[in-house]
Amino acid sequence: MSLRTIIETEPLSVEAQLLRVGRSMQPPTSAYRKTLVGLGITASATTGASLANAAAGTGAVSAKSAVVAWLGGTAAKGIAVGFIAGATVLGATRVGTTPRQATHETTPSGSSVAKLGLPYSGAIPASGKLARELGSAPERLSLNAPSETRAVVKLGSADQTSESEPSVSCTPTHTAAQSAAQPVLGTVTGRISLSGKSLGAEVELIDGVRDALARQQPERALDLLMQHKAQFRNASLGEEAMFLRARALEQLGRHADAAEALRQFRRAYPDSTLSEQP
Amino acid sequence: MNGSADTITTGALALQRDAAEHDVQPVNARQLEVIVRQHLPHVYRVLRQLGVPSCDADDATQQVFWTLSRRLADVRDGCERAFLSTTAVRIASRWRRTHRRRCEDDDSAPISQAAATLPSPEHQLERAEAERTLFRVLDAIPEKLREVFVLFEIEQLTLREISESLQLPQGTISSRLRLARDRFREAVRELQSSDAHRRER
After folding, report:
1. Which of A22, B69, B104, B195 could form a cystine bridge with B154, CB 3.0-4.6 A?
2. Which residues contact A63 (CB under 8 A, 6 or more apart)?
3. ipTM score
4. Segment A247-256, tens digit of pLDDT
5. In chain A, which ranges are continuous DSSP H helix?
6. Is pTM, for the whole model, over 0.90?
7. Does the distance separating the beta carbons of B33 and A28 come in below 8 Å?
8. How many CB pairs lie under 8 A apart between chains A and B?
9. Cα B166–B172–B174 angle (5° rounding)?
10. Is B9 in CB contact (< 8 Å) with chain A?
11. Among A72, A34, A41, which Cα is nearest to A56's?
């Protein structure tokens, strides 16, 4: 009997099951992003750091022991964004000494935030474990690191206990200039998505915006950007979204608005490579 | 992994140098993007099932599409999949020769995307185990037979497509496929047998 037909005729046979496993294998999101970046297609869709990391292979999620060093301050911005762009981060380890207790707070807007001090001992718990530790599931994870602290973020830790793929994304809350002005404390906030709003979903949405712009549909692009803003309050791809908004306004012929949007973008992300895109 | 990362970085830089030296003209980015989105799962599966470990699969995938991007003008419309299959087979073959045993601990690699989307950790573990079993079985098939087997039985290309991709006569493909199937079944039987032995103990 042909193995091709065995799946239909003998669905419970080991051969059939193995073939089915082979056929249903899916690449990680990082493979798409990395390939597109490598081809220069998503140059406008990533930051300089993520571009460099992805092209150099350091941002690959599938690299199970790939290690990204986070040095705080200026370096934190690039590297944090770099690994976000192509990776799901399931855990982190510290290089430090004293472990600090995780705390749980509720922001004025009602979202719950887990805060971990760095140096932090051991792996950053995946969402399920963190929820158990804190008694309820936080919506965001905030990491506070002294600028001298060196944290090593490991991609693809096996510490995965939630039902859906947990993702940690880090968005810098201050610019490099602010880092220089505040040498003592560098802060990076991150978000553990517990509601299925994963980085993958965000990437899809931003890719939709790019698609719309490529099809000369700026209204749709702006709609999608509104959705992005509403759905991802702590967006990993906020920089890209802001840049694409300027492009969408330009396509709409709203040149003054586009120029203003671009000015705001450059103020917010002075080191961004996106502004160099045509 | 450090060695691998260095190699990857070096590879990426080499690609950039290559682009600069050969003045690679930007191809139709939109067209390329569509091709990537359409065919990347196929390329990724072929690479993985031809022995490229998960820690290197992203880079190998990138190489395949990089190759396509440089040759896109020469590839007839509708023949992208065949071109990508050919390239993936070649890159996997080269990868196996030069990177063998680089990721010995691949069994502990993060679970695949397919596994990660499953509803519970138990399902994910089962899926990951099934993938590892598949790789073990495929490892038992000699390289040239495995290429035909993966392209036909898993990627479901036709004999003609495989014949064009591997630039071999269809008769050769058929006989290789027959042999590969035998080896596949044999490997599955051996696996079941050793599993039964283990349980008896």
Report:
1. A22
2. A57, A155, A156, B1, B4, B5, B8, B55, B58
3. 0.76
4. 899 999 999 9
5. 3-9, 14-23, 29-38, 48-56, 73-86, 127-134, 176-181, 199-214, 218-231, 238-252, 255-268
6. no
7. no
8. 163
9. 100
10. yes
11. A34
